Amino acid sequence: MCSTNTSILDCFNPDAKFNMIDRNTANYHPSIWKDYFLQYASQSMEFDDETKAQIQKLKKQVVKMLIDASKPIEEIVDLIDLICHLGIRYHFESEIDEVLQQIHNNYTKNEEIIIVDDNLRLLALLFRLLRQQGYHVSPNVFNKYKDENGNFSEQLVKDVEGLLELYEASHLRIHGEEILDEAYVFTSTQLKSIATQLKPSLAAQVNYSLRQSLHRGLPRLEARRFISIYEEDPTHNHTLLTLAKLDFNFLQNLHRKEVGNITKWWRELDVAANFPYARDRIVECCNWSMAVYFEPQYSQARKILTKLIALVSIIDDTYDAYGTIDELKLFTEAIERWDLGCLNVLPEYMKLIYKSLFQIYEETQQEVEKQGTTYCIKYSIKALQETTQAYMTEAKWLNNKYIPTIAEHLQISTLSCGYPFLMTSSYIGMGDTAVEDIFKWVTSKPKIATASTIVCRFMDDIVSSEFEQEREHIVPLLECYMREYDISKEEAIQELQKGVTDAWKNINEECLKPTEVPVMFLMRIVNMARFIDVMYKDEDCYTHAKGKMKECIEALLVDPLPIKSEENFLI
């Protein structure tokens, strides 16, 4: 018999028959992609010299457009917005920053926009661009569009483009900005009511925006969609369109190769055979990390994050849908000890997970040694340990049929959703700019990280509760709300949706200048919230990956943008 001071690892019998157990498995569909992306692992991602030269020449032309001070403000603002929509902003960050700083200096006073022109579209667009750039411009400028009763004027319904821009701008609101809360309600109500009366192209844009706001969308997915629409506009700018297409295809080639190499690693793990109970979603994991950062310089970070997402997904399913309570105690303590000697007492299927984790961190340590950032490893491992401890608590709740309070649930489920771990790990491989203070900051649970986690936890719970209750599972947060407040499911969903809205206000506020840490680190957290907004709006598209997730992967990784012959020679 084990003493009370002895670890379960010290007294467990490794010869126990783990397989003679009735397990609580989930019915996940198999991988959609299988080995499809292996074909790209050995392919070159490089363009030919002529295309590279063309891209560089096009970029120089765009820089000239941006720094042309003779343009009226409306043209400049529209140009910046167009560059953002086309997905090529990351090439011109310094130029756009300088132009918007000039606009902020010249067209605001005490953070009030002072444009005289009564143009709602321009005003709302400028407000959105300045907010996105971190300027705390006041929304009070929109009071001019209210009537004598303090409501937004019904006359605005005639200005559909202005309404649409105000709707998009309202998604940048922070706490205390009632005028933007009102703007959101007004614009969404009016746009819904007139959508059927609009021309097909404008109606399609309105309906899409009502479903997916620009600010909460995935930049690469938004760019892919917009490029196809912009191409049909007879007034399109050939330089911008050609650069956007070439850049999209370049990134797609790079990302395909990355996915191909990750698929090779996944194939060696033989997940379908070794972990048949788990979600086989390696391409979806790649898509997740691409949403966090798509830029070429973050290739190493994407690789590391993808592998960690994939393994934590298996661990999640192990706790959630396969492991017995005794096995899970063993694994939790093994993660806590972080010692390969623990392998001897783990069941065979857990040994492979454990060894794979060690291999990833050992490989990563060797890679980041060159950057002088080996400190990042300990922060990621600590976050992993906190995650598995949260998984273990939930497993105990289920085993004991315990129904937690809302507070108890949130304390654990905001860890078990995995986002604190992923946020911490997302900074690994970002280079020497990810100094140790960045890891100390993100692990201190800053407001923006907590808000992004709430978006994940609440949206996941709204769409996943019914599927999870088809088998034994802990009581979802939704049900905790229903029990604790004695409300209906619909009312509980409204409470969680309000929580998501409030969380986005926190995210927006934390991105305003001056920021606690450089914006490049904040954007990883923002993009994680965006991924959830897109992929968990109607269902858990990671678990049920045959719909929206598949469409996203096809758009970003499978289908290149066609380049017309005249675009090939547009220099």
UniProtKB/TrEMBL annotation:
<keyword id="KW-0456">Lyase</keyword>
<dbReference type="GO" id="GO:0016102">
    <property type="term" value="P:diterpenoid biosynthetic process"/>
</dbReference>
<dbReference type="InterPro" id="IPR001763">
    <property type="entry name" value="Rhodanese-like_dom"/>
</dbReference>
<dbReference type="GO" id="GO:0009611">
    <property type="term" value="P:response to wounding"/>
</dbReference>
<dbReference type="Pfam" id="PF03936">
    <property type="entry name" value="Terpene_synth_C"/>
</dbReference>
<dbReference type="InterPro" id="IPR008930">
    <property type="entry name" value="Terpenoid_cyclase/PrenylTrfase"/>
</dbReference>
<dbReference type="GO" id="GO:0000287">
    <property type="term" value="F:magnesium ion binding"/>
</dbReference>
<keyword id="KW-0479">Metal-binding</keyword>
<dbReference type="InterPro" id="IPR050148">
    <property type="entry name" value="Terpene_synthase-like"/>
</dbReference>
<dbReference type="GO" id="GO:0080027">
    <property type="term" value="P:response to herbivore"/>
</dbReference>
<protein>
    <submittedName>
        <fullName>Probable terpene synthase 2</fullName>
    </submittedName>
</protein>
<dbReference type="Pfam" id="PF01397">
    <property type="entry name" value="Terpene_synth"/>
</dbReference>
<dbReference type="InterPro" id="IPR034741">
    <property type="entry name" value="Terpene_cyclase-like_1_C"/>
</dbReference>
<dbReference type="GO" id="GO:0010333">
    <property type="term" value="F:terpene synthase activity"/>
</dbReference>
<dbReference type="InterPro" id="IPR008949">
    <property type="entry name" value="Isoprenoid_synthase_dom_sf"/>
</dbReference>
<dbReference type="InterPro" id="IPR001906">
    <property type="entry name" value="Terpene_synth_N"/>
</dbReference>
<keyword id="KW-0460">Magnesium</keyword>
<dbReference type="InterPro" id="IPR036965">
    <property type="entry name" value="Terpene_synth_N_sf"/>
</dbReference>
<feature type="domain" description="Rhodanese">
    <location>
        <begin position="93"/>
        <end position="154"/>
    </location>
</feature>
<dbReference type="InterPro" id="IPR044814">
    <property type="entry name" value="Terpene_cyclase_plant_C1"/>
</dbReference>
<dbReference type="InterPro" id="IPR005630">
    <property type="entry name" value="Terpene_synthase_metal-bd"/>
</dbReference>
